[in-house]
Amino acid sequence: MHWETLDLLRESLPYIQKFQGKTFVVKFSGKVTEDKDNLASLAEELALLHQVGIRVCVIHGGGKQLTELAHKLGVVQTVIEGRRVTDDDTLELAKMIFRGKINTEILAQFRRRGIRAVGLSGVDGGVVKAVKRPPKNVVNRETGATESIDFGHVGDVVEIDASLINTLLDSGYLPIISSLGADNEGRVFNINADTIASDVAVSLKAEKLILLTDVNGIYLEESDPSTKLSRVTSTEAKQLIDSGRATGGMVPKLENLISLVGRGVRSAHIISGTSRNALLAEVFTDEGTGTMVVSG
After folding, report:
1. What is the pLDDT of residue 69?
2. pLDDT tens by residue, 258-296
3. What's the pTM?
4. CATH classification of the domain holding 42
5. Which domain does 127 fall in, by range?
6. pLDDT per position as a tens digit, 222-241
7. In this structure, is residue 89 part of a structural domain?
8. Alpha carbons within 13 A on the beta-carbon side of 79
9. Same structural domain for residues 98 and 71?
């Protein structure tokens, strides 16, 4: 055995002490949950966080699996500017896939690790109060005409009631929340999982929001790994946007993280959801693996 590997345990000790009793909100992108081995590996890493006394809450969507089932069943999907129109049939599938299939598969992996995970959607306990997204004016690129698009059963978050989540966390459970919400009339909506994760993190006064994605951080130049931002303050991140150094898809990601730390979450992270131990390295080592934005 390489005794040096035990140094990693020593390195993690101050982090374990620092984060014990703190809340981490972890958002799974679709890719994370698609591969069973990847999901199993991730559940093990999160089980470790849970075991050392960190309060972990997981949020997930599952857009790709929804698209695949729709395709199998012949339910035509309309996507406008990257946003799905959720018609009646698609909403039925979203309920099945998010709250049913994906949620249960995540729970099963935690069960393997002996962790008391609980599956919910944003409808349970009134956690996610939503309203229907209003129609949006979109320019049709082919004709140049402006059209009003109704996204159907897509919701925007009005508020988060975190009392059920806190009850579960206080009792030692690990909540797994799928990206559905409802209004006061009980109408169910498909809601962006990043938005729910952000709002839940703010509501829980989370120490960290960790977004597990298919990239291991934010790069100033997308094809150049040496330009990855490892740790930036919100002020530095703003300067990167204002000066034009951050471009393209990086800008909305950075803006989202800046907004989060401005709303009281201590730090926001983008890390790879498919690299083994990326989560543990980000939380328990000095170096980390992804991009971390802190206030300041």
Report:
1. 94
2. 999 999 999 999 999 999 999 999 999 888 889 999 988
3. 0.93
4. 3.40.1160.10
5. 19-206
6. 778 788 889 999 999 999 99
7. yes
8. 8
9. yes
DSSP characters over the chain: --TTHHHHHHHHHHHHHHHTT-EEEEEE-HHHHHSHHHHHHHHHHHHHHHHTT-EEEEEE--HHHHHHHHHHHT---EEETTEEEB-HHHHHHHIIIIIIIIHHHHHHHHHHTT--EEEEETTGGG-EEEEEPPPEEEE-TTT--EEEE--BSBEEEEEE--HHHHHHHHTT-EEEEESEEE-TT--EEE--HHHHHHHHHHHTT-SEEEEEESSSSEESSTT-GGGEE-EEEHHHHHHHHHTT-S-TTHHHHHHHHHHHHHTT-SEEEEEESSSTTHHHHHHHSSS-SSEEEE--
Domain count within the chain: 2
Same domain, 265 and 202: no
Task: Please give the Cα distance from 212 to 23 (Å, whole number).
Answer: 16
Task: Answer whether 21's CB lies under 8 Å from 49's CB.
Answer: no
In this structure, how many other beta carbons lie within 10 angstroms of the beta carbon of residue 145?
8
